[in-house]
Predict the 3D structure of the following.
Amino acid sequence: MSKFKKKKDGGLAPINTASLPDIVFMLLFFFMVATVMRENTLKIKNVLPQADQIEKLDKKNPVSYIYIGKPSENYKKFGNQPKIQLNDNFADISDVAGFVAAERASLREELVPFLTIALKIDKKVNMGIVGDVKQELREVNALKINYTTASGDALSNIE
């Protein structure tokens, strides 16, 4: 027996993990900043009509959304007729004025004239309820209205 043993090949050096917590926290911070949380849960079916001449809104101006459509599968207990959704709740046409007033109250005073009401309307909804909502918006002097559409061929809306 020999007194000295031959040194075996140690292989690769171990990976230095000292900076691993810094990297993990940097990634966590990045995803916290970059992630956009959904503001509203849609309770209606909302297949937007298509249009070919559309413009994008400025991100600088405040926008409030009014959704109109038939209740989705999870909310069939509210009926089969088109409903208005303001924020996360179903509403009547008479609630639109209060919604606009609340949206204006939540803004800074200098941004109130720039408030745009965006209508996200399912393409199968009749224009009667849309006309009623527009009339209610006129009564509260909310005259900046935007119809939200998907980009595409406008002729594909005809069924």
